[in-house]
User: Which sequence fits this backbone?
């Protein structure tokens, strides 16, 4: 059932770029149909080419989230590919994930239909892990040894000790970190199994992990 007949496909557009480029991304996005977005500060990780699985925190990153119509998201992602040169390594990553709905200050739009149909498997998936502050690098090391090429760590602390924030309607308590990993679909189960085994993510209080299919991705290199 489509609760709004004018809306058939809604995507959440993720853009991960170097610190300082978030405003540029938002200007491009708004110029090409986006109504607005949210910018988070995070850190990318670097994996040693000599020692597979050894990771360290790299440059600061900005993560921009924009909910919009699918055709708008695809238009924005193509423009970003041109303007920010996502086709070059280390210039950024942009990808989209399907949403059932989006609710903002101006309007709420929902679609409960399956927009993809069939059993087609996605090429890439995102693995998101929410853990206590200071544990994110452990997750990245485990994921790297299991085959992940890198990750982005997002600081999810509130401004005050009693504040909480929400991501995908999940309450994130102060002093938490979010790890975002993008991998090929065939690696997802291996990485999750490794996190379960080596981090005991299933143990109450240790963290939360969830996986999402990615529709389109630019700027990702093996």
Assistant:
């Amino acid at each position: 059932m489509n609760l709004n007949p004018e809306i058939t496909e809604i995507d959440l557009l993720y853009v991960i770029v170097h610190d300082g480029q978030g405003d540029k991304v938002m200007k491009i996005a708004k110029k090409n149909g986006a109504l607005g977005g949210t910018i988070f500060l995070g850190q990318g990780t670097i994996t040693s080419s000599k020692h597979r699985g050894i990771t360290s925190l790299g440059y600061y990153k900005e993560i921009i989230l924009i909910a919009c119509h699918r055709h708008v998201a695809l238009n924005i992602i193509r423009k970003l590919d041109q303007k920010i040169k996502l086709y070059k390594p280390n210039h950024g990553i942009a990808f989209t994930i399907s949403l059932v709905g989006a609710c903002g200050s101006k309007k709420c739009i929902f679609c409960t239909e399956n927009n993809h149909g069939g059993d087609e498997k996605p090429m890439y998936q995102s693995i998101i892990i929410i853990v206590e502050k200071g544990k994110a690098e452990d997750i990245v090391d485990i994921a790297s040894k299991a085959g992940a090429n890198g990750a982005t760590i997002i600081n999810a602390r509130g401004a005050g000790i009693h504040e909480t924030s929400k991501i995908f309607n999940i309450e994130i308590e102060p002093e938490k970190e979010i790890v975002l990993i993008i991998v090929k679909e065939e690696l997802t189960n291996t990485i999750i199994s490794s996190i379960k085994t080596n981090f005991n993510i299933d143990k109450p209080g240790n963290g939360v992990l969830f996986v999402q299919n990615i529709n389109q991705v630019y700027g990702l290199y093996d």
User: Anything to note?
Assistant: The CA atoms of residues 142 and 197 lie 10 Å apart.
